[in-house]
Sequence to fold (199 residues):
Amino acid sequence: GATTAVDSAGSNDGMNTSVTTGVGGQIGSAYSFDGVNDIVNTGTSTLVPATGDFTILLWVNSSTANQADTFFSNNNAQAGRFELTSLNSPDRLRLFFNNGSTSLNFSGTSDIYDSTWHHVGVTRSGTTFTLYVDGSSEATGAQSGSVAQDENWLLGNGVAGNKAWPGLLDDLGVWTRALDGNEISTIYNAGLNGDSLSS
Fold:
């Protein structure tokens, strides 16, 4: 059965289905996803704003990258679908966003699937998306349009249940503004020292 996935820095508790908890994380304990059917449903479709700037950051750890293994998504083939996923060969962070008519699909430059912890994420400032890995920006892309608000945001899988993430996830944070590079570097370095977003 599902159990509560506690939001330690806010009030957006989610539901954990089959995900193993209490494993060693970058910051305290992490969630371990089996790459088959594990999922955390945040319980909200508005976690990421439809319009305006935002930032999504989290820690990931995996040794296996398959195309489009998803660690944060609202993608159910609808207009405005968005996801942070893997790109295999090479094994990199990938962003996908479809605004209903065109798709933005680009990736970072670092191998993040090497069985060590990496801090990954994206900012949106205006129409510019920037991917970050381990405190540094790696790639940018541009896309207009609204992020869908009709599907709950999920950790560790796609909405259709066919993009399961095989690995560990820790300390997800979402901001309704675009953090700058210095702020993201500070959060990354704090996480290296074991400091969570809630602290």
